[in-house]
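Troubleshooting: if your tokenizer reports a length mismatch, compare your output against this known-good record of 390 residues.
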Amino acid sequence: MASLSFLLGMIPSTEKVESADDQLRADYRAFKEFEQSDELKHYLDLEKEVTSSNFALRKKRIFKEKYKYSDAYRKEERYNRLLKKQKGDERSKELEELEDYINSEEFLRQKQYLTMRPAERYETTEEYQKETEYQELKKSEKIRWFFNTKKKYPFKELEKWELTFEDSFIGNKLDRSKWMTRYYWGDKTMNSSYVLQDDKSFITEGDNLEFYDNKLRIVTRAEKAEGLMWRAEQGFVMEEFDYTSGLVSTAASFRQKYGIFKAKVRMAEGSVSQAFWMVSETMLPHIDVARYEKGRLYSNFFWGKGNVHKSISKTAGKRYSDDYFIYSLEWSPGKLVWKINERVFKTQTSGVPQEEMYINFSCNLKKDASDHNLPSAMEVDWVRVFKLKG
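Known-good structure output:
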């Protein structure tokens, strides 16, 4: 049985969970991009220079500079003394050279610079420009964001994982390099679709898949079809069906042992059994990440050889057919954790699978189910799988 929080609907909204995850990933991309940027390199180079002891010494010298201790002052004094000693129109070579210097732009600039007040003088220097730029950059939103983020570094968990499989169903057709539309065992042994004897809808070869607004819809509807059914006492037999449905599977393209398997799904109201499930080369182990039927949501686990063990957890709630939810399975060597919108729904530590498994999304109308609310569609917005790096 689910915890009280699920029974009362006290779980984070899908929009909030997805928005937080999207923002974290966007921040991570922005952080890594800025970390390698010329803008940050320039700031760090400025910081290294402006905060260095050499820069402090240069700044101190600029403030302590005085005209009377300068070479320009000494030359001006020498010029004035020679000018006073001059007799008649006769001028020495030294006096002429000093007079040319005293009347030069270089001397005038130097004298003007050295006779300024120290603070004003500093403002005319390259050191002042660098220090001012450094202080402005230091207060900028981007720099502050980068270093605050670096200090907190909320990406540690994100960096542990790498994306190994993804589909956002962009476009108007199924990516056949990722998905097959029949059970793996039927495809492998007979190159054909089939259903089980408790099904009264037949799984078509993709005819019951629709695409709308970048979402996959697996539709169950009332329509005639003919196909194979597996009966325990007879094997595969041809049957007539009054209903059709669909399935997508990664059995031929993608399997993984351990990791995080998640999908954003909206279940359909009514009696159709809809599931996001995982299985391996044989029927067991079997994991229902999320199964919805008759107004109840299930997270199930079946395992064992000979004696079948099962662990079933369920919760009621029409909310699962009213909106999208993010269903996930976190699978480690010793534990299975089911989550709905990042809130733990179920935990399992016994019988944990130790073989690669693949993903399935399917809809079936079972023998005892009514056809009320047909046609109906399970909608899958996206599916993602991650594994630990290394």
